[in-house]
Structures are given as C-alpha cells and as structure tokens.
Design brief:
By secondary structure, this protein is α/β, with parallel strands linked by helices. The C terminus is likely disordered.
Length: about 475
C-alpha cells in the first residue's frame, strides 16, 4: 500500500512539474532576433517525430532548470510554421538552436538536461569579456577548461576575435586582459604566479607586449603567428578550443574532424593505456605535430569513421584532412611508438579518398548495416528484398515464354504478313497512280503537238 502511495505521489509531483514549467510555445510571431528580449533555446519539432516525443520531458525539465537564467526555453512546430524552420535551416527533427544576442548556435550533443543547460548558459554569455583581476580569471577557469587570453589587444585583433567568438562561445571563452599584473610579459625573467596561487600555475606569460595565449591541460600555449593574419588566427583558435585528451563520443569526435590536427584513438579501458594517453597529451612538444587524444568505449564511433572493424585495445592514428589512418593492435607496443611510426611513415596506411577506398567504404556499410538485418529479421528482409526480385524474375520468365509459345508466334507471323500485305497494296496503289499520271501527261503532249501542226498547215485541218 505504501509503495503504491509513493508511486502516486511521485507521478503527481512530476505532473505538477510539467504543468508549472516555463516552456514557451512559439508561433508566427517568432523569427526576428531583434524582437527577442533574451536568448531563446528553441526546439524545432514535428508532432509525428518519435525522437521529439522522447525529448519533451527533458525539455520541460530544462525549462524549470533555467528559470533563474536569462534564457527562454521554447519550442515550435516546424510542420506548421515552415517559414521559421526554413529561416534557421531546419532539415531534421528535433533540431535545437540557441537564438539571440545577434547569434545562432546549433546544439550537437547529448540530449540531457545537464548538457543542454550548460550549452544554453555558455552560449548566451557576453562575448570578449574583460579580465582585470586574478579573481575574475579564477572564476572563468572554474567554468571553462580552455580559456583564451588576449593581451594588449589592438583594434584589428579585436575584429578578428569578434568573428570567431560568436562561433565558439558555447565551447570556450575568449577574454581580454586589462591588467598587466595578471599576465607577465617576459619569459626570460623568473616565473611569477598570480598571488602565488597553485591553481593558476603554470605561469601566465607571453614573449611579447601583445599576443594571445590559451590555457588548457594545465599548460600555456602562445599563438606564434602574425596577429594581423586574421584567417590563421581564427583557425588556430578553432583548432585549440578543445582539451587535448577527451573521452570520446559522437558530440566530442564530430567537431574534431574539421580541424587540421591528427587524432589518436584508443579503443578500450585499460588504465595503463589511458594514463599513457593523458601523459602524451600533457607532453605536447615531445611529438612531431599536433594531436588530439581520444579514448572511446564503443567500437561504432571509430568503425563508422574508418569504415573497418576495430578490435578492443587497438590504437588508430587518423588524419581528418586525407582520411588516412594507421592501425595497431599490438599490446606490447606503446601508444607513443604507434604515433611516431605514423608520423615517420613507417606504419602501413589505410583509408584515403580514392576510388578503391570509396569502394571499401561502401562494402563495409553494406556488410555492417544491411547484412545483419538478414540474420536478425529474415522474414521482414525477405518481404522487402526477395519478393520484388521474385516478381521481376517472373516478369522476365513470362516474356520468354511468350516468345516460345507457337500460337503467339503464328499470330505474330499472321499480323506480320498482314502488315506486309498492307505495305505491298499501298506500294501497288502508289505505282498505279504514278502510271495514270504518266498516261495523262502523254495524252496532253499529243494534243499539244496536234494543235501546233494545225496552226502551221491550215489546209490539213480543211482536209480533215
């Protein structure tokens, strides 16, 4: 009796939470960012979409969670209001967009209330905040694992940063340092730490009076390129905006595929291997090139990427630009050795973007996606695939039988003879008509000749 009462109370509490939630249903008035009082986290849904239905409870929970933040949780039926859906590039359901503050961000990640809440809060914060004290910097570091600091920012550099900041504000933060005491502008002198705080180590120092540094993985990396080169600066910020070591899933791997850095995947959960990857990520200068290190626990993440089957414990070094990768499944070989063999071209390479690689990808997708359906659902696959093929074969056999049927052959021959007879009759009629025309022409010519003779000899006409 008590268990039933508890279940009833829990159901009533969840129902009340859904009723009291602050999820706004948008309509025709939605579509202009300038009219939004604050950023809107919008879910574009379709009533018939199963994934949308499963996301609705999470959306209501998110609405209650963000009541104290300047973000409005909303949803809109994209099948009714297609103009708004087309404006924001909605091509599937559900699609989640953070709209407002002169920016539009698409959410690609886990559909949980915690992940969506973090995305909404970070995505709606101000761009290029000022850092004038160590306390302010400490607060920023609590919320972000990767921070970019601009020191002595010029107007041209600020324009470049204003281009990339709206695109990465939900992933990292780019701040302007307004106090020279926070960042030390000389690497040759004795390292000094902010308030001697161990949390702020290593020393935040740059080699020039103006520049940009990134704080990540308990390290500091400085942009060594030309600050006036906006394209390279934006590319560097985009490439450095993630932690060097991450536990992989689709939302983590997907943005890395558009960067120029190589990716080292380890498929497994061996603690020694994971520790080795973390150590390599903190020893960035010990490897030739720039890498991201990803530990994955599901084979599908890496198998869909390389279009090949991967074994537990394997190490894959992948190049996103060329889609070339090296594969190692030797437990005695260290991850660093696998990376060094790849960079020195000593390891066999697979993949690529050629015709043969494309053929192998098609075969892998067929063998991994289509063939298992025959084993799991033979009856359904028989209806979908075998029945149409059987009907096609029956049609072909029926056509062959009609060719071999003697009665049909006689009928077809008779019809063919009739056609030939008709053609012969038409030709004969045509010849007869031509002969008659020739006879008429000869008679006309005879008459004309007789008339000419009479005109020349009138006595001949009298005798007649």
């Amino acid at each position: 009796m008590e268990s039933r009462l508890v279940k009833y109370l829990l159901y009533l509490a969840s129902l009340l939470s859904l009723i009291s939630c602050t999820v706004v249903e948008l309509g025709t008035e939605f579509g202009d960012q300038s009219r939004l009082e604050q950023p809107h986290l919008v879910m574009f849904y379709a009533p018939w979409c199963g994934h949308c239905k499963s996301l609705h409870p999470v959306w209501y929970e998110l609405g209650n969670k963000l009541t104290r933040h300047p973000v409005t949780v909303a949803r809109i039926d994209a099948t009714l209001y297609r103009t708004a859906a087309e404006k924001y590039g909605v091509r599937g359901f559900p699609t989640i967009r953070l709209i407002g503050n002169d920016r539009t961000l698409e959410y690609v990640g886990d559909r949980t209330a915690a992940a969506l809440s973090e995305f909404a809060i970070k995505g709606s914060r101000p761009l290029l905040p000022s850092v004038g004290s160590a306390g302010k910097l400490r607060d920023i570091r609590k919320s972000d694992d990767v921070i970019f600091l601009s020191v002595g920012t010029s107007d041209d550099t600020r324009k470049c940063l204003s281009l990339v900041a709206p695109q990465t504000v939900h992933e990292t933060i780019i701040a302007e340092v307004t106090n020279d005491g926070i960042v030390m502008v000389d690497k040759d002198t004795r390292p000094t730490y902010i308030n001697e705080d161990t949390e702020m180590r290593p020393d935040l120092s740059i080699s020039k009076s103006s520049g940009i540094i990134v704080l990540k993985d308990n390290q500091v990396f400085e942009y060594t390129g030309n600050l006036a080169d906006c394209i390279n600066l934006v590319e560097w910020i985009k490439s450095e905006r993630f932690s060097t070591f991450q536990v992989g899933s689709y939302p983590v791997i997907h943005p890395l595929l558009f960067l120029k850095y190589k990716i080292v995947f380890y498929y497994g959960d061996d603690k020694g291997r994971v520790s080795e990857m973390k150590k390599l990520s903190s020893e960035r200068g010990s490897l030739a090139g720039d890498f991201y290190f990803i530990q994955i626990n599901k084979a599908e993440y890496i198998e869909n990427l390389i279009s090949a089957f991967a074994e537990v414990g394997s190490v894959i070094v992948y190049e996103p630009g060329t889609e070339v990768y090296s594969y190692s499944n030797d437990p005695k070989k260290s991850i660093k050795s696998s990376v060094e063999e790849h960079t020195s071209n000593k390891a066999p390479l697979y993949g690529g973007t050629g015709v043969w690689a494309g053929t192998k990808k098609v075969w892998y997708r067929l063998s991994s996606n289509v063939l298992p359906l025959f084993y799991d659902h033979p009856f359904i696959m028989g209806i979908v695939v075998v029945v149409p093929i059987g009907l096609l074969l029956l049609c072909c056999c029926d056509e062959q039988r009609s060719k071999d049927d003697p009665i049909r052959q006689v009928r077809s021959s008779e019809s063919h003879m009739d056609l030939l007879w008709d053609e012969d009759s038409n030709s004969k009629k045509k010849i007869t008509a031509e002969e008659e025309e020739c006879e008429d022409e000869e008679e006309d010519e005879d008459r004309e000749s007789e008339d000419d003779a009479e005109e020349k000899d009138p006595d001949l006409k009298k005798e007649e």
